[in-house]
Model the fold of this input.
Amino acid sequence: MKQELEHIKDQEQKLLLHTYARYPLYVESARGCSLYDPSGREYLDLLAGISVCNLGHCRPELQQVLHEQAGRLVHVSNLFYQKPQLNLAQALLESCGLHRAFFCNSGAEANEAAIKLARRYYQVHKSQNRQRIVSLQGSFHGRTLATLAATGQPGVKQGFEPLPEGFCAVPAEDIDALDQALEQDTAGLLLEVVQGEGGVRPLSREYLQQAQMMCEERDILLMLDEVQTGMGRTGRMWAHEHFGLKPDILTTAKALANGLPLGAMLAREEAAQGFGPGSHATTFGGGALVCEVASKVLQILQEEDLVRQAAEKGEYFMQQLSRLQSRFPELIRELRGLGLMLGVELGAEQPQRIWQGLLEKGFVCNLSQGNVLRLLPPLVISRQEMDCFCQALAQVLEKQQ
Ligand SMILES: *Cc1c(COP(=O)(O)O)cnc(C)c1O
Done:
């Protein structure tokens, strides 16, 4: 295996742009919650492709839908009518109570569409000079120029200036700062209910509700980025349901088609008036094949009651992790999360070694912000699998002491 890994690493060095610091694991196939390297060694996947393969890998039902739809219609462009996109729109809108959907191919594109919609809604539909988009420090909204401008992490912006104007990121949980930032020229407030890339940080109920109230009072669009938190991940279909929020615009992507590229921006009727024919478009977005798969994903989520399961399993996982925290209070500084979106903030001097130790034992998770183990397992993970992970983590932590 080592040789195969070295070989593929060498090839990559020559062939690809050096945009990824990859983990030392060569994945050849996957099934359920398991990944397999070329030697056939199994790894338990607690990341699900960053909350993408929420139903587990390579589900036979999805394979079947893919196969059938691939023989019927794959793509016809958005110049024509087709049913799969409509079916998906209907199911998604019913799940959140919003009124209109726009499909694209990624989270960044969904947020890009949301930003464009908010600006155009005020400038064209309401003839108001509102262009500013307010977001939070520590947030992540994507890698296109506008979503980068909205992202509240200075590091990822470096070297890409000039970025589009009209963005401002305020500290999270600071109502006064938000009060000042939401000025008259503000079109929208863009938030992640639980910051994902920022290290799994749920925002407080109080802050979110106040933020929503301020938006209502000032006629500012509340735009929720549920690219990572959407589709059952947090134990509710949409994370904002935990806090009783009513977004004007909702974006999602990652888990939507369980691994195929698909993003969506969902909007309230009024906000949706910002776009008309010709104002926004995409070639691939909402293709028949990927939409048909996504409809099946939604159906499986419901039939298998996976959203409720995510809540219950998340609670169980958190309990088991809390036990570990009492055992290793210095090494586990904080546990955060919602449902099956969990962050273990490490207090170790070299958090990297803990993550590495887990990988060596066959457990895949992510280290975000340098010291937070981010756990985003497939929602179909079993209690036994969560127990195995906790045992492995205990062994790795023991070695650190
Ligand atoms: C991953 C992510 C994005 C970007 O999605 P891409 O599909 O990589 O463009 C945007 N917002 C949040 C909250 C994300 O987690």
